[in-house]
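INFO batch 0412 | record 1 of 1 | parsing
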Amino acid sequence: MKRLNKDILTWIILIIFFALLIFVYNQVNDKYNDLGQNAPLPTKLHPIVEEKKDVLLKKASMIGINVIITEKFRSIKRQNELFKQGRSKEGTIVTHAKGGESYHNYGLAFDYALENKNGDLIWDIHYDGNNNGESDWFEVAEIAKEMGFTWGGDWHNFKDYPHLQMDFGLSIHQLKNGLRPKINTE
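INFO prediction complete | emitting tokens
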């Protein structure tokens, strides 16, 4: 009788354990739209990234910094062309990501520059156009990071100062395999 009760208890514990495991798995995956291998590539910025980009522009403007978005969504073809730059094409290397390996390709990243008082676009990371003693570039990056963006200027192996992205916890590998962040903001 004792043996039977012990076996039943073991089975109950195993069933509860697996039920909890399934519950946790579903909770973790619920924040994504798992569209499998056939998920289409987006053609524009993710709505949340687009919305937060607009807020970033307003916040920067409020402290006297005019931010210009130089590139948002980027096609695989465009990414491959940029990858060739400084390698098989003239110019300097601007990316280490081939097509499909950039968050731009999934509508989760954009690049920016600053506009000076003459209306010229500048990429000078030391520029202080609002004359507060701080680099405008770094001020914009700090605002963006407070809003949940990752800044390419914080990367260790390749500093990509114009780059901001939101990965929603997804790796490039997951994105390549069709996993996408949810569109709704609930």
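INFO post-check: The chain has a mean pLDDT of 89.
INFO record closed
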